[in-house]
Amino acid sequence: MSTQSNNSNIQNSQENSLGFYGSHGGQFVPDEMKARLNEVADCFNKYKNDKNFLAELDDLYKHFCGRPTPIFYCENLSKQLGGADIYLKREDLNHLGAHKLNNALGQLLLAKRMGKTRIIAETGAGQHGVATAAVSALYGLKCTIYMGEEDIRRQELNVLRMRMMGAEVIAATSGQKTLKEAVDEALEAFVNDPESFYVLGSAVGPYPYPEIVHHFQSVISFEAREQFQTMTNSLPDMVVACVGGGSNAIGMFSHFIKDKDVALVGAEPGGIGNKIGEHAASLVHGKESILHGFKSYVCLDEKGEVAPVYSISAGLDYPSVSPEHAHLKDIGRASYVAVTDEEAIKAFFILSKSQGIIPALESAHALAHAIKVAPNMKGKKILVCLSGRGDKDVDQISAMLKENKIQMS
Ligand SMILES: *Cc1c(COP(=O)(O)O)cnc(C)c1O
């Protein structure tokens, strides 16, 4: 029953009904989209704790995804840092190399229950697109992925992987031609085709998506909390996860929210600086606004419009963030820090060399924070969500090495 039992946690951080987390979240969309979203919500509420549904999902987690993923104690790295002990939750060991599949599988089962025949998804770096293409292939459903034209150019390999699994990849050609535009076009396609189901890739969007994604990703901390106790006879003192839209982080935090002594820290992409356009740290630098049908912290420019965002890590550069994280920040239950490109690259090399694990550049942001604070936390334990593996980033790192932009330290 891996996805059950986080309802009390949802209640904890959710003050009002219908998708509000304090002042954030909600459903700021036209009426016709509201009707479609509420159809999805009804299906989710009907099946989220249904025995047969959960049994089917658990079977897929076990046999298709490779769950449960282990917890790993980084002995070499911990010794090297000389402070806190560092542990990793190995989401990089999932099929396709990241946590994205946890959510794509869950949403696909909902689509099937609703009798939908076409799957729609947005993707940024392509990781969610690949996961959605895979589960659509598994269930023989037609799959259309919306991806920014700029991202299609940068992520050639993932585009090919999606096509190999039978998905159609459509270029979003407006604006910055990246993730924000891909979401705009995917939402529009969803409303225009009543036979479609929109598989949203992060804990963002209008109600019910933040709640759905939290539910399916909470399998991470459902496993991790128990595994950590079995391994160490204690709970971690600090849990760290990187935050793009916030799905691996909310999945990693979920079952620890009620453990008040466990510090929860989200690592946002600090990019190359604090100015507009130099980062994508919506919680650290953003202001409350509405984007893509929900209210949360958004990176805005001087005019109050959505700012261009940047991160070295293509999976983190979204200008807003999960409304639940916005609320956890407001009530002080979690804290959020901006980690720079430089710090993330350093952590990428440190983990590769010390433990033989190449992390995704996204996950390296979380790791970088742990590396920064560990020396002053002797006797404590830090659990880091290693959201994905770094094989996909090796080409990018290679190019930067060749141009002498970075050093292999
Ligand atoms: C997509 C992705 C992320 C960022 O998405 P979240 O919804 O914030 O988790 C982080 N790590 C990896 C490996 C990813 O593929």
TrEMBL record:
InterPro entries: Trp_synth_b_CS, Trp_synth_beta, Trp_synth_beta/beta-like, TrpB-like_PALP, TrpB-like_PALP_sf
Keyword S-adenosyl-L-methionine found: no
Pfam families (alphabetical): PALP
Keyword Transport listed: no
Pathway: Amino-acid biosynthesis; L-tryptophan biosynthesis; L-tryptophan from chorismate: step 5/5
Catalytic activity of the protein: (1S,2R)-1-C-(indol-3-yl)glycerol 3-phosphate + L-serine = D-glyceraldehyde 3-phosphate + L-tryptophan + H2O
Keywords of this entry: Amino-acid biosynthesis, Aromatic amino acid biosynthesis, Lyase, Pyridoxal phosphate, Tryptophan biosynthesis
Residues with the N6-(pyridoxal phosphate)lysine modification: 100
Domain annotation Tryptophan synthase beta chain-like PALP: ranges: 67-388
Stretches assigned to coiled coil: none
Enzyme kind, highest EC tier: lyase
Record GO terms (molecular function): tryptophan synthase activity
Cofactor(s) the record lists: pyridoxal 5'-phosphate
E.C. numbers: 4.2.1.20
Domain of life: Bacteria
Matching CDD domains: Trp-synth_B
Binding partners and assembly: Tetramer of two alpha and two beta chains.
Role noted for this protein: The beta subunit is responsible for the synthesis of L-tryptophan from indole and L-serine.
Stated family: Belongs to the TrpB family.
Protein name (record): Tryptophan synthase beta chain
